[in-house]
Amino acid sequence: MSNSCSQGIENWGDNVFAGINTAPNELSYLRQFVDAHDFSPHTIRAICFDVRKFGKYFVQVNQESFDATRCTTADCRGFKRHCRETLGQSVSTVNRALVSLRKYFNWLVAQGLIEHNPAKAVKELRKQQLVPKGLERSQVRRLLREIELRKDVM
User: Fold this and answer.
1) Rounded Cα gap, residues 60 and 109, in angstroms
2) Is residue 149 part of a domain?
3) Distance between first and last Cα of the chain
4) Is the entire prediction scored with pTM above 0.85?
5) Fewer beta carbons within 10 angstroms: which end of the chain, N or C?
6) Model confidence pLDDT, tens digit, residues 11-48
7) Count of CA atoms in the C-beta half-sphere (13 A) of 101
């Protein structure tokens, strides 16, 4: 196992999927995926967290072991909804999880372990424009006073 994998996955303990019923090869696949890339420790931690969260969701809604070879686009869409609506996660967090899954599934496709990437067709959430913040009451008062004092009334 490469150093990056030992620093990333092993920080989670012996098994990223501890407490989650998974197919026998899931941890091995995730370790191979991480080893095949030059991810930073932070990226490894994020990917592990996202794949674990997806695995937990998969087991909960499908009532079967998490097996990446049995994941569907509907699973990925449901996961996106679950993260946003049930867990109340931010748009950025949900989108990061989708990107992590897409990368992982792309690798599984490249390895010939699955035929297609079920997360590929799932669109990321649109980032919403923040509404401009209004002035505080004291700022409005100060502005109106300054206009009056300067006799700059229109």
Assistant:
1) 25
2) no
3) 73
4) no
5) C
6) 554 578 888 999 999 999 999 999 999 999 899 999 99
7) 33
> Which strand (E) or helix (H) includes residue 29?
helix 26-35
Q: Confirm whether 145 is domain-assigned.
A: no
DSSP designation for 12: G
Neighbours of 113 (CB within 10 A): 14
The answer for residues whose C-beta is within 8 angstroms of residue 123's C-beta and 6 or more apart is: none
Q: Does a structural domain hold residue 134?
A: no
Q: What average pLDDT score do residues 112-122 get? A: 92
**Residue 133 maps to a domain:** no
Write the single-letter amino acid at 45: R
Average pLDDT over residues 133-142: 87
Give me the half-sphere count of Cα atoms (radius 13 Å) on the Cβ side of residue 109.
Answer: 13
Give CA–CA dist 25/36, Å, rounded: 16
